[in-house]
Amino acid sequence: MTKRDVLVMVPPLPPQMAQLEETYAVHRYDLAEDKAAFLAEHGPHCEAVATNGHEALTREQLEHLPNVKIVACSSAGYEYIDVDALTEKGIPFTNTSDALSDDVADCAVMLTLATRRHLVQGHAYVQTGEWGRQGMYPLTSAIKGKKAGIAGFGTIGKAIARRFEPMGLEIGYLARSKKDVPYRFFDDVVALADWADILVAIVPGGPETEGMIDARVCEALGPEGTFINVARGSVVNEQDLIAALSSGKLGSAGLDVYLNEPNPDPALTSLPNVTLYPHHASGTVETRDAMAQLVVDNIAACFAGKPLLTPVNDVAPARA
Ligand code: NAP
């Protein structure tokens, strides 16, 4: 039986890549030197695309993929993929938000605790012997009783709220529409920052949210406030964040994502009041495995004419 053709724009992990190679005729766009020529040659007979949200998939590229029945993305964010164009063309699109939401929410909690309770500074205080020389480390601020603003209240924002609530944090959130939850709704990020002690960004990247966290937000959060970013570097005006953290207008920040990855601005990373993580919120063996498997399983479901496991757009798979 002839194998169906699958375009691999970004490969999943090796075990899942092996599954794709066993089942399909795989075309490695990721390895092609002349990607435009490769797409023009192999795109027309491909029936599925395996990718992630950091790789662009434009309307123009889709012109070379007339037979694609599914685009399976192995990340939660997909701001470089033209999902509107996919929907218009009747192509289902899947992501992996459900598989990674717990790990990313854990990371938001980890950065919140580490930043507010000075984990990194305390570690250095013990390791360098400062504790013995200087005595007790300065007091920090309690988590319980503070207000946490969650900017973005989708799959991951809700998972963060589920963790914050039993920690004794009062929760407010920002989204495009009000949800049926017992938390305070804000439709303005400055108002949310003004209300909150801790502001967590977990909105999608892309033009709509670009630079959302700016000088006004930092100043509204204030000298005792903490900004946590597990969303995308693009949602922050980084120069405004650096200025606010340097001047003390914003107290501290815990960051997993940056504008310039993997070499973020040293003016940001050298500040004493930041806690840094290398865009690794979903970086556990279990979650990365589940994310990669979803790519394989969504493609298989689509070809079998079955419901997709993690659909994003409202397009049912075409019958095989
Ligand atoms: P989601 O379920 O689509 O939720 C997104 C939330 O953001 C929704 O509540 C949405 O509001 C809100 N939103 C979107 N645009 C907005 C705007 N312009 N203003 C205010 N709110 C807006 O997405 P998710 O799965 O939770 O993931 C969120 C993002 O996290 C991803 O897109 C990705 O960029 C990032 N992420 C980062 C990591 C990491 O490694 N650090 C890992 C996974 C994901 P409505 O509900 O009203 O539509």
UniProtKB/TrEMBL annotation:
Keywords: NAD, NADP, Oxidoreductase. Transmembrane segments: none annotated. InterPro entries: D-isomer_2-hydroxyacid_DH (IPR050223), D-isomer_2_OHA_DH_cat_dom (IPR006139), D-isomer_DH_NAD-bd (IPR006140), NAD(P)-bd_dom_sf (IPR036291). It comes from the Bacteria. Residues 8-313 form the D-isomer specific 2-hydroxyacid dehydrogenase catalytic domain. It holds the Pfam family 2-Hacid_dh. One of its GO terms (molecular function) is NAD binding. The keyword Ribonucleoprotein does not apply. GO terms for cellular component: cytosol. Residues 109-281 form the D-isomer specific 2-hydroxyacid dehydrogenase NAD-binding domain. Belongs to the D-isomer specific 2-hydroxyacid dehydrogenase family. This is 2-hydroxyacid dehydrogenase. It comes from Psychromarinibacter sediminicola.
